[in-house]
Amino acid sequence: MNALADPRQAEAFRFVRCSHHGGTVELVYAYDDGPELIERIRFPAAPALPPAREPAFAAALHLLHWIAGISYYKAGIPGRILVEDALPDADTAGLLDELYRHGLAEFAYRNGLELGQRIAFPHDGRASAPAAALALPRRTLVPIGGGKDSLVAVEALKTLGGDATAVWVGHSPLIAQCAERTGLPTLNIGRELSPVLFEYNRMGAWNGHIPVTAVNSAILVLAALLYGFDAIAFANERSASAATLEYEGQEVNHQWSKGYAFEQRLHEWLHRHVATDLDYFSLLRPFAELGVTRAFARLGGEYFDAFSSCNRNFRIRGPRPADRWCGQCPKCHFVFLALAPFLPKPRLLAIFGRNLLDDETQSVGFDALMEYRDHKPFECVGEGDEARAAMYALSLRPEWREDALVARFVREIGPQLDAGNLALEPWLEASGEHGIPARLAGALDAIRDA
Asked: 77 and 139: one domain?
């Protein structure tokens, strides 16, 4: 193996090759003439790929190679991107440029970097042959993340009585437990990052947030083609499209690959390059976070002891909380606040094991959620207006208004706000903006009427 060198000094990042054999995908990258970074994706008990799907699978495999490369590219962000196995066409290069620039915007902001013209995927002048319908089976892959959103999507799809499978990438016991609780068939796909990446990180390479939902989406496209599914139904709500701040003239959104712009872009790309009967969408897109938490609260508690949205539970490395909720991170803060208007107080305190709103030391975290003296956290949380509406609703309720942070809102923050803009009800209404196929649109009624 060639000696490791600081990737920040490299001239080029190389997409070397990708392959699939017997359910294992290998994605290979390198900096200059340095060691190969090899990532492996493992599809359990993968069936033989039907010949009719082979061209579509090849196109999807290359897309995964290019998208997953963002985990490795960020270590050095050199000024040249080289694609050595098969150049993308102009449409695909445009998608990749967009994903890397928006998906690495938070990374750039936190590291004080200017990506500028660094990101420019090469492409050839060919026009890809248009995709055809593959007669994929009417089955739906439902990604499970261990939190409330995907569980709401699962229960909504169940009302339609169709064929659905709960799927997740990686080896999280917490997600596995949630997936099993759904009662759906399950599919756990393995992802092994290159150990060379962690060596680079120890050397001080650039590190930070990447759009992992985009990577998982590309993995699930391969799964749909391998196992035979015509729909990939994520559970990303409309609040995911809201940016946190602006940096170097560009919006910075921690959830960009969960937002509607990326969803539309990938859906359209799949119909042009992979299969016209493979749909990629989010079942929760019409709903704000508060609408989703209301639906989750009304599930009747069957998941209350199994779910967790605390991101510290899903770290690749490092310590995890002793229970399902650390009680300190923005996700814990937001889920507690968002559920509070819709659950009896004792029930909510039993889920978290404590009252986060009666702890003065948590004020900075809740202030950030409400965008009071700070910007919204770089986490998968709702909009500042949503958080303010939820806190205002609690301030009107006797069982909550004496708690430390609610009382502080009444005393200090609320008087600075226009009460006319703090109503909870508008956040519970569904919008008409979504990409849900007609055959699954009935699931919206289950969420709306929950």
From this structure: yes
Q: At which of 282, 301, 333 does a domain end?
A: 282
For the chain, what is the domain count? 2
**C-alpha to C-alpha distance for 308 and 145, rounded to whole angstroms:** 9
Query: What is the C-alpha to C-alpha distance for residues 337 and 111, in angstroms, rounded to an integer?
Result: 30
Helix-strand-coil split of the chain, %, nearest 5:
45, 15, 40
**Residue 135: partners with Cβ closer than 8 Å, 6 or more residues away:** 52, 277
Q: Where residue 88 sits, what CATH number does that domain have?
A: 3.40.50
| 190 lies in the same domain as 278 | yes
DSSP-derived letter for residue 4 is: P
Q: Would strands 80-83 and 37-42 be described as parallel, antiparallel, or unpaired? A: unpaired
Are the C-beta atoms of residues 274 and 56 closer than 8 Å to each other? yes
CA–CA separation, 70 and 27 (whole Å): 12
Q: What is the DSSP string of 152-217?
A: HHHHHHHTTT-EEEEEEES--HHHHHHHHHTTS-EEEEEEE--HHHHHHHHTT-------HHHHHH
Based on the domain organization, do 64 and 144 belong to the same domain?
yes
**Beta carbons of 148 and 293 less than 8 angstroms apart:** yes
Residues 159 and 273 in one domain: yes
* Same domain as 163, residue 16: yes
pLDDT per residue rounded down to tens, the chain (450 residues): 467 899 999 999 999 999 999 999 999 999 999 999 999 999 999 999 999 999 999 999 999 999 999 999 999 999 999 999 889 999 999 999 999 999 999 999 999 999 878 999 999 877 777 899 999 999 999 999 999 999 999 999 999 999 999 999 999 999 999 999 999 999 999 999 999 999 999 999 999 999 999 999 999 999 999 999 999 999 999 999 998 888 878 899 999 999 999 999 999 999 999 999 999 999 999 999 999 999 999 997 889 989 998 877 655 445 455 578 999 999 999 999 999 999 999 999 999 999 999 999 999 999 999 999 888 999 999 999 999 999 999 999 999 999 999 999 999 999 999 988 999 999 999 999 999 999 999 999 989 876
CA–CA separation, 224 vs 336, rounded Å?
35
Domain match, 276 and 409 both? no
Give the range of the structural domain holding residue 54, as residue numbers without chain letter: 7-127+134-282
Nearest to 18 by CA among 73, 66, 74, 89: 66
